[in-house]
Design brief:
The protein has two domains: 122 residues, 3-Layer(aba) Sandwich (Rossmann fold), CATH 3.40.50.2300; 140 residues, 3-Layer(aba) Sandwich (Rossmann fold). Helices cover 47% and strands 18% of the residues. α7 links the parallel β6 and β7. The protein is elongated, with a radius of gyration of 26 Å.
Length: 337
């Protein structure tokens, strides 16, 4: 009898060990359990950020976020970008990056339509792609991480109306071929048109993302509209060029300028009052979450409903990284520490 009980005990122990091992293997293979344990990759995994006008200050914070996420995940990153504001150069850079077969690519698209075929080429090669800052919605990129740019334009319109007492002529200097700038312009234009009947948009000009060119555009606008009351710049180089133009042209009243982003030149002009306000984007978050998204995709930690998790995937197709209005009152908070 004792021998029989001993045999039963052995079989029961084996069965319990089997159940424990099965449960352990199932739980450790789950993406959610890996998330709880802490995500760690390999240094040999390389993720690449691709931009344009690679030397400008704007990219420093997205890259810092990208690098901070890499440190947290134990992976490697590389920064590549077109030197100029040139879509063909960015396509060439992206082709070169694809050829190296990185673990993932985060790209800000200088032109949503012209970049789409090359972005899709990366997807076809099995490389996850996250769009950040400037989207290419017709592409098969996995997600977009960045500002709600229509809302940013809307916010700028309300701020301009506040500065001008809801009346006066206003101009816009933008980058008409870049989707994020198109959306900022649209948000500003539609809000002014619908909500402020005593305000008028008298000019929308291409500043080409260049300080000197934007300056000349404003000089031309002021010749035609000497009673101009305000100017909205959808990017920082344009904002600085506009401020320089306004300072150089003698007008009978101070023109209100709203710019974009928080490079030092822009912040200095906000501090001195030449630029009335600028819109700060969540640029560090763009880089940080772009890499987190890429890591999830590369490690297949984004289960679909077919795998029985839920109808919603772990990663949203769009993440809004937010904006803040920067004025003289809070400008000191935005200088690099």
């Amino acid at each position: 009898m004792k021998k029989l009980l001993l045999i039963h005990g052995i079989f029961l122990s084996i069965f319990l060990l089997y159940l424990y091992d099965y449960h352990f293997r199932e739980s450790s293979s789950s993406p959610l359990s890996q998330e709880e344990e802490g995500l760690r990759g390999e240094i040999s995994e390389k993720y690449v950020m691709v931009t344009f006008q690679a030397g400008i200050d704007y990219w420093k914070m997205p890259l810092k976020g990208f690098e901070d996420a890499a440190h947290a995940l134990n992976v490697s990153v590389e920064y590549r970008g077109a030197a100029q504001y040139d879509v063909h150069e960015q396509i060439t850079v992206l082709e070169q990056v694809i050829a190296k077969k990185p673990a993932g690519i985060a790209i800000s698209a200088i032109n949503p339509d012209k970049l789409t075929p090359t972005i899709n080429k990366a997807i076809d090669a099995g490389i996850p792609v996250i769009l950040f800052d400037a989207d290419a919605p017709s592409s098969r990129g996995d997600a977009f991480v960045g500002t709600n740019n229509y809302n940013a334009g809307l916010t700028a319109a309300h701020k301009m109306a506040d500065l001008l007492g809801s009346k006066g002529k206003v101009a816009i200097v933008t980058l008409p071929n870049q989707l994020n700038h198109q959306e900022r312009t649209k948000g500003f234009l539609e809000t002014i048109t619908k909500e402020y009947p005593e305000m008028e948009i008298v000019a929308i000009k291409d500043g080409k993302g260049d300080q000197l060119f934007s300056r000349q555009m404003v000089v031309d606008i002021l010749r035609e509209h000497p009673d101009l009351a305000g100017i909205f710049a959808t990017e920082s180089n344009g904002g600085v060029g506009i401020a320089n133009a306004v300072q150089s042209v003698k007008t009978h009243k101070k023109i209100k300028i709203i710019s974009f982003d928080t490079d030092k030149r822009t912040l200095d002009m906000v501090k001195e009052g030449t630029i009335s306000a600028t819109l700060a984007q969540g640029t560090w978050k763009m880089g940080y979450w772009s890499l987190q998204f890429l890591f999830h995709l590369n490690h297949k930690l984004n289960p679909s409903s077919e795998e029985g998790v839920s109808d919603a995937t772990l990663l949203p197709p769009y993440m809004d990284t937010g904006i803040t209005v920067v004025t003289k009152e809070n400008v000191e908070n935005y200088y690099a520490k």
